[in-house]
UniProtKB/TrEMBL annotation:
Secretion signal, residue range per the UniProt entry: none
Residue stretches making up the AB hydrolase-1 domain: 180-387
Claim: Aminoacyl-tRNA synthetase is one of the keywords in the record: no
Source taxonomy: Eukaryota, Viridiplantae, Streptophyta, Embryophyta, Tracheophyta
Example of a GO biological process term: triglyceride biosynthetic process
Keywords attached to this entry: Acyltransferase, Transferase
Pfam families (alphabetical): Abhydrolase_1, DAGAT
UniProt KW Transferase keyword: yes
Superkingdom in the source lineage: Eukaryota
Protein name: Acyltransferase-like protein
Gene source species: Forsythia ovata
InterPro entries: AB_hydrolase_1, AB_hydrolase_fold, DAGAT
């Protein structure tokens, strides 16, 4: 069949032009009148022998309105010039802590506004497009192919374009409204792109993000290509369509008169998603209640008139076709689950009124070889368009982001963004109010100052200290460095935190996900080596789990190994070592049931023994002698107190730069190691003494001061002089 060449205008209409000469590249500008316009970049596609390209016309006019820029090439590779330009920008970029990921700046209104422009008929087959707001990505970023749901528009990631575009080469699949390509042909078309990308970069993973119907498509491609490194992310996949709650209503849709079809989009919008969740996607959750509800009301009011565009996105004939497509897609994917070797992450909603997504996620977990799930109990079917689900956050927190075949905790780490940190501050507010953490640090001249200004800004820096009961000191410490210095402190953690053993039973986003999101990584010599080599700020607890899960009467006791494990490695990189102490666990909770107590409780004791047998291979102190080797993991019984306060003191920085040769001597290294340990103990003794002088040690006094005078982080403490 002859090639079909067209040029498109998104507003005020699509202008079909079949007569202009085709060139390798062309630029088309689509004008829109609203703030929601996003820029898209289209590539030519090939489906069943039909090649879709564009004419060479270039629109040079500049308008005040937002513009939708589309770039088209002949094949899956796109423009070499554009790729070189992206690589040049990428080499100069590096994500810093609290980078702007753009999440929360768009909502479903933007999706509907863009839908109005992109659905104009062009007679062409499916194609890929890249939103300009997505790029350019960082160097060596993997490719991400978004496979849409029933709408077929490819706009389902509109809330996530900017964040994903920083770390992925994003391409979105667009299926025109009138297109009737059967499911197997769509599979072959996506597969062609996957195979081409794999041949171009065989050591780099390819991400397939499938939404509903797109989930079936992603699974089908993965099943047919078991030898390609694929990471499949499914958002409420339609593999459960045969058990859909809507099955009894499907015959009624076919019999519905054409004049009543305009009501279907409004009904579907209520079934497919939570309107309130959609309307709150771009509202700052830290707004005061009056401002929050005022903006919510405005969003809902602006959303309702836009829903009418759904009748154009899914007209009656298209709806009936898509339902048949869903049926064949689910059957095709389900029959091939056994062949899938790809890494799979399933996002499941608890309030999906279209599909039984929660049950389906558990079925896929049992059926697939390498699968994990995250459950969102308050979200609906259109989970990627709703508030509270930042796709990149989930990818990062589940250690699903990687640039090569194996995940590297240092090279593949992406620092927390501004929106993620804001969410953490909101979620951890109770801890700041409850524990009232106050931090002190020591400058080079020995002067103690409030805050962490005494800790060097330039890495590598190794923070070495006491691990308080249950790690209660971790969250305030990481928050303080981010707020005051915009420095992320990366914690060396027990390997169990990165295994399936700590997965929550309900698979909801957990505290362990947050720990991984903020840079924790398993304690191994290679990981410490890489962190110091990249001049990071590293948090190290030599006492490890034995210290954090101590027994009764052991608070503020160090359980450090005899060997100076970290000193010589720090010296190798000229790292600055900052010893620190922290006290206050006895002021916020009482340990009433420790490990020994719990072992004596029938059934519970047996469960703890069995669990620790499963953890045995992850014991980083295996083979050592003494108490430090006793790394038994358990959850202690704590009795909350009327809280006092948690205090930190970072000691005077210890320089190892220029001391590498001296510290190669074991006796010198041990001497420095014991000095660091002594500094930690001295810091805790100092804090234990000085906290008695703090007039705001009690939460009652802090709360009164906060109400009358200042925010919690400005509440005074003892005089350090």
């Amino acid at each position: 069949m002859a090639s079909i060449v067209k040029s498109f205008w998104a507003s005020p209409y699509f202008d079909l032009n079949l007569n202009k000469k085709r060139h390798s590249r062309s630029r088309i500008q689509c004008l829109t009148s609203g703030d929601s316009a996003a820029a898209l970049s289209f590539e030519s596609v090939k489906v069943n022998g039909i090649i879709n390209g564009v004419s060479s016309s270039v629109v040079k006019e500049k308008e005040e309105a937002d513009r939708l820029s589309i770039e088209v090439g002949h094949d899956h590779r796109g423009s070499n010039v554009e790729e070189k330009k992206r690589e040049k920008v990428s080499e100069e970029e590096k994500l810093e802590p609290l980078w702007d990921d753009g999440y929360g700046t768009h909502s479903v209104k933007d999706y509907l506004d863009l839908a109005k422009e992109i659905i104009k008929p062009d007679g062409g087959p499916p194609r890929w497009f890249t939103p300009i707001s997505c790029g350019p990505p960082l160097k060596d970023s993997p490719i991400l192919l978004f496979l849409p749901g029933m709408d077929g528009l490819g706009l389902g990631l509109v809330l996530h374009h900017k964040s994903l575009g920083k770390v992925f080469q994003v391409r979105c699949m667009h299926i025109p409204v009138q297109d009737r390509t059967p499911f197997e042909a769509l599979v072959e078309w996506v597969e062609e792109t996957v195979r081409f990308e794999h041949s171009s970069a065989p050591n780099r993973p390819i991400y397939l993000v499938g939404d509903s119907l797109g989930g079936c498509l992603a699974l089908a491609v993965a099943a047919r290509n078991p030898n390609i490194d694929l990471v499949v992310i499914l958002a409420n996949p339609a593999t459960s369509f045969g058990r859909s709650q809507l099955q009894p209503l499907l015959p009624l849709l076919e019999a519905l008169p054409d004049e009543l079809h305009n009501t279907v989009p409004y009904l579907l919008s209520c079934v497919m998603g939570d309107p309130v969740k959609m309307a709150t996607a771009n509202i700052d959750s830290m707004l005061p209640p009056t401002g929050y509800f005022e903006q919510l009301s405005g969003n809902l009011t602006g959303l309702l008139p836009r829903l009418s565009v759904l009748s154009d996105v899914i007209p009656k004939e298209t709806l009936l076709w898509k339902l048949k497509l869903l049926k064949s897609a689910a059957a095709y994917a389900n029959s091939r689950l056994h062949a899938i070797k790809a890494e799979v992450l399933v996002l499941a909603s608890g309030k999906d009124n279209m599909l039984p997504s929660e049950n389906e996620a558990w079925r896929l977990l049992r059926s697939l070889q390498n699968c994990k799930i995250r459950y969102f109990k308050d979200n609906g079917h259109t989970i990627l368009l709703e508030d509270g689900v930042n796709l990149l956050t989930i990818i990062k927190a589940t250690c699903t982001y990687r640039r090569k075949r194996n995940h590297d905790f240092v090279a593949d780490f992406l620092p927390p963004s501004k929106s993620e940190f804001k969410q953490a501050l909101l979620g951890n507010g109770w801890l700041r109010n409850y524990a009232g953490p106050v931090m002190w640090s020591t400058r080079e001249d020995g002067k103690i100052v409030r805050g962490v200004s005494g800790v060097p800004n330039e890495g590598p820096v190794l923070l070495v200290g006491y691990h308080m009961l249950m790690g209660l000191e971790l969250v305030p410490l990481v928050e303080q460095f981010l707020q005051e210095k915009k420095i992320l402190v990366r914690g060396i953690a027990h390997p169990t935190l990165f295994s399936q053993l700590v997965e929550s039973e309900n698979k909801e986003f957990s505290f362990f996900d947050t720990v991984r999101l903020y840079g924790a990584l398993p304690v191994t010599p290679s990981n410490l080596f890489k962190l110091l080599a990249t001049k990071s700020h590293v948090l190290l607890y030599p006492g490890g789990a034995r210290e954090a899960l101590h027994r009764k009467g052991e608070q503020y006791k160090l359980f450090w190994p005899d060997q100076p494990e970290f000193v010589r490695m720090a010296a190798r990189f000229g790292a600055t070592i900052v010893p620190f102490g922290v006290v206050g666990e006895d002021d916020v909770a009482e340990l009433v049931l420790d490990y020994d107590d719990l072992l004596r409780i029938p059934i519970l004791g047996d469960n703890i023994r069995r669990d620790n047998e499963r953890y045995k291979d992850l014991n980083v102190r295996a083979g050592m002698s003494g108490e430090v080797a006793n790394q038994a993991l358990y959850i202690p019984g704590l009795l909350p107190k009327i809280p006092g306060r948690v205090y930190y003191l970072f000691g005077k920085p210890i320089q190892t730069n220029g001391r590498r040769e001296m510290l190669k001597d074991r006796s010198n290294a041990r001497e420095l190691y014991l000095h660091i340990k002594s500094e930690v103990e001295n810091s805790m003794a100092y804090l234990m003494k000085k906290r008695k002088e703090d007039p705001y040690r009690s939460i009652v006094d802090r709360t009164v001061y906060r109400v009358l005078h200042a925010p919690m982080d400005q509440v005074p403490s003892f005089d350090h002089e």
